[in-house]
Amino acid sequence: MAKILVKQVKSKINCPLTQKRTLEALGLRKLGQVVEHDANPAILGMVNKVKHLVSVEETK
User: Fold this and answer.
1) pTM for this prediction
2) How confident is the model at residue 21 (pLDDT cuts 50, 70, 90)?
3) Cβ(17)–Cβ(37) under 8 Å?
4) pLDDT of residue 60
5) In what order do the strands lie in the sheet with 34-38?
6) Which residues pair with 57 in a beta bridge?
7) Which helix (H) or strand (E) is 21 found in, with range?
8) Is residue 51 helix, strand or coil?
9) Rounded to 5 degrees, what are φ and ψ at 7?
10) Distances (CA, A) of 18 to 1, 37, 50
11) Is 54 strand, coil or helix?
């Protein structure tokens, strides 16, 4: 399965609570933090919900 790197690039300060919880569920606690996940539909849906706050790169 493909892996993706998710990096938080914008602050969650002025975001709705659901988006803050989505970032925490992805494992992103600080600005600039990078986490690696499998590219399954659940993770891709969470990334899509906060796409304005994160950047995504595909790894091998």
Assistant:
1) 0.92
2) very high
3) no
4) 78
5) 34-38, 3-8, 54-59
6) 5
7) helix 17-26
8) coil
9) -120, 130
10) 28, 20, 10
11) strand
